[in-house]
Amino acid sequence: MNPTKVFIHGLESSSQGAKVLFFKEKFPDMIVEDFSGTFEKRMDTLNHLLLKKKELILVGSSYGGLMAAVYTFNNELKVRKLILLAPALNLEEFNPYLNKKSNIPVTIYHGRHDDVVPPESVRDAARKVFTDHQHHLVEDDHSLHDTFKSMNWEKLLNL
């Protein structure tokens, strides 16, 4: 069975953002959705969207990274891999998960010059909760514009 690939955009983005357009072109089977409203409303949308899906590879950017991580903790048997781009694991919505552990493989890319989500706090949170993770601190900012398209997405999106 092929994995179900899902991209979750950030707080101020949409399904029309640059990352989404890239994924739509390169990986047309990837699920992308517009998320808006409160964290709870966004999570309700995500839960409904993935209700009958399994073998998930979740890609989350910033606030979408927070959503992907929270979804994973609540649905570990459905998720196979997480790819987090400057994930907002520093926000209070992630606090209930800081005393939990996940064995799901996680790859994190974070810009060293991110002035929106502090890389150090994300690294510390990831070390606490993800037993199988790779953390890449790159010469970029929060949006990872310089890094994103050069990433090996074929490799990252395979199990």
Structure description:
The chain has a 6-stranded parallel β-sheet, sandwiched between helices. The relative contact order is 0.16. The radius of gyration is 14 Å and the shape is globular. It is built from 6 helices and 6 strands, in the order βαβαβαββαβαα. The protein has one domain: Alpha/Beta hydrolase fold, catalytic domain (Rossmann fold), CATH 3.40.50. The chain has 159 residues and is of the alpha/beta class. 32% of the residues lie in helices and 20% in strands. Helix 4 links the parallel strand 5 (106-111) and strand 6 (133-138).
Mean pLDDT: 95
- Give, in order, the helices and strands: EHEHEHEEHEHH
Give the biggest beta sheet.
6 strands, parallel
Percent strand equals 15-25%
Oligomer: single chain
Number of domains: 1
- Span between termini: 11 Å
Q: Number of DSSP strands? A: 6
Summarize the structure.
With 159 residues, the protein is an alpha/beta fold. It has helices at 18-26, 39-49, 63-74, 119-129, 145-148, 153-156, and strands at 4-8, 31-32, 56-61, 79-85, 106-111, 133-138.
